[in-house]
Write a structure and sequence with these properties.
mainly beta, Jelly Rolls, globular, disordered N terminus
Length: 260
């Protein structure tokens, strides 16, 4: 009797093992052919890379040294008008110069996810100005999130407000500023925040190089970049790119942007 029970148990165990093994085999993917995981459409658009200071072929040229037609004043429209005034800054030798006290400027076009190229140059220091008083401006993604522009030539300040910082949020990974009076080159890769009817779905993210050096590596923003207080998000859609007038005659050139 015991032998019968033992034999029955062994048979049952083998049956269970066989059943599980077959089921496990059934869960494996079929035998794939290489072409089963290949696709051919949609074909990415052909983009001709820029060479030297020439932008990529699909870039939107925001400033090429000739005019300010892509920009307007940040000041609200005059009473009774729905149009802002033209950008009040000036062009000097193919460079866009801030006119201190005239106010910031913004693009007429609105942007979301983008790749931005912009070059800036700090003016000579005035008197004993140091820190935030030297070469201060800012590049505002979607009119809200500031990438700091500042003279970084022997000019100590709080590190989350130095050149290359996401203002008051993230210090740069490296100080890649060269010298006062030399052109500094920002390349920015921006992932816009996403909102729905309930609020924030995904926060903004930014990667920045300064003069070819990575200084912000996929930094996730905590919200806007206020001078005082803590960052927060307010729902919005596509918005202009803006440049700040902080009372210094910063120069800009070779500004282009690509929608992503």
């Amino acid at each position: 009797m015991k032998k019968i029970i033992v034999v029955f148990a062994v048979v049952a165990y083998v049956a269970i093992f066989f059943t599980q093994h077959v089921q496990g085999q059934g869960q494996r993917p079929p035998s794939w052919r290489p072409e089963s995981t290949e696709w051919y459409t949609p074909v990415p658009p052909k983009v001709q890379p820029g060479t030297g200071t020439k932008p990529p072929s699909d870039a939107i040229i925001l400033f090429d040294g000739t005019d300010l037609s892509k920009w307007e004043s940040q000041k609200p429209p005059a009473e009774g008008s729905n149009r802002r005034e033209p950008a009040p800054w000036k062009i000097v030798n193919g460079e866009m110069h801030i006119v201190p006290g005239s106010g910031g400027i913004q693009t007429k076009e609105y942007f979301g996810d983008c790749q931005l190229h912009i070059e800036f140059k700090s003016p000579p220091p005035k008197g004993n100005n140091i820190g935030q008083g030297r070469g201060n401006s800012g590049v505002f993604l979607q009119n809200t999130y500031e990438l700091q522009v500042l003279d970084g030539d022997n000019n100590p300040t709080y590190v989350n407000g130095m050149v290359g910082s996401i203002y008051k949020q993230s210090a740069p990974l490296a100080d890649a500023y060269t010298k006062n009076g030399e052109w500094q080159v920002y390349d920015v890769y921006w992932k816009a925040p996403v909102f729905d009817s309930n609020g924030l779905v995904s926060p903004a993210m930014i990667t920045v190089t300064l003069n070819g050096i990575l200084i912000q590596n996929n930094y996730i923003l905590k919200g806007h970049t206020p001078y005082t207080g803590l960052p927060s998000y307010t729902p919005h859609g596509r918005l202009p790119l803006s440049l700040q007038d902080h009372g210094e005659e910063i120069a800009f050139r070779n500004i282009w942007i690509r929608n992503l």
